[in-house]
Amino acid sequence: MAASPYFRSDLARIHHEGFGFHADAVAPGILRILEPVLERSGLVLELGCGSGLLTKYLVEAGHRVLATDASPAMVDLARGFVPTVPVEVLRLPEDPLPTADAIVSVGHALSYLDSEEDIDSSLAAMAGALEERGLLAFDICDLEWGSARRGQPPGVWFGEDWVLTTRRSVLDDRVFRREMTMFVRDGELWRRDDETHDNVLIDTSRLPGFLARFGVDAEIRQSFGNETLLAGLVAVIGRRRGS
Prior knowledge:
By secondary structure, the protein is of the alpha/beta class. Helix content is 29%, strand content 35%.
C-alpha cells in the first residue's frame, strides 16, 4: 500500500473521539486469548493500532507491545494516547514484520488493503513473523459485510466540534465503499475534508486452509469473547505450530 489515503488528521481525531466502542468491546476477549503471551512476557505486535484504543488495554494488562498503523495521523495520536509504547508507521504488505509472540489487529485493518492478493500476502507475512506457538488474533470483513449494508441510508455523527456524514455503497459484491465528509470547527469557522474508504470483502471461510499452508492452525469465530461483532465482521484466532 502506498502512503495511506485513509484517516488524515481530522478523521483520525473523529474516529478516536467517537468510535472507540469496538476496542472497548473486543478488549476482554483479546486479553483472554493473549494470556499465554503475558505469562512468558512475549512481544505483542499490533497492526492497524489506530489511535491506540486497544493498545491502551494491552499495556494496562501488562503486555509488551509494538503498535503500528499505516496512517501517520493515527500514529501521532497513538504516541500521545499511549506514550509508553513504541508506535511506528507500517504499511502492509510491503513493510517487513518483526518477529512476535502474538500478532493482533482489530477494526478490520486488513480489509483496508488494496486487493485480496494483498490480504493474502499480508496474512502469509503475519504467519511467518510468529514465534513457535505464537498467537494470531484479527478481525476482517466477510462478503456478508456488504450484503448486510446494501441500501443503507447515509449516516450522520456529531461531536462537540465536529460533524461526520457517511454514504455507503457495495461495488461488485467485493468492495464496500464509505464516502465521508467531515466538518471540524477551526476558531470561528468550519473546515471541510473528504475521504473515500474502500474495504475489500472476502470469503473468510477459506482463511483456515490458507493459514495452514504457513504453519498456523486457525479458526473462524463470531467473536473474540462474549462481545457481539457487527454483521459480516468475523474473528480469526490462530496459533503457529511448534516444531
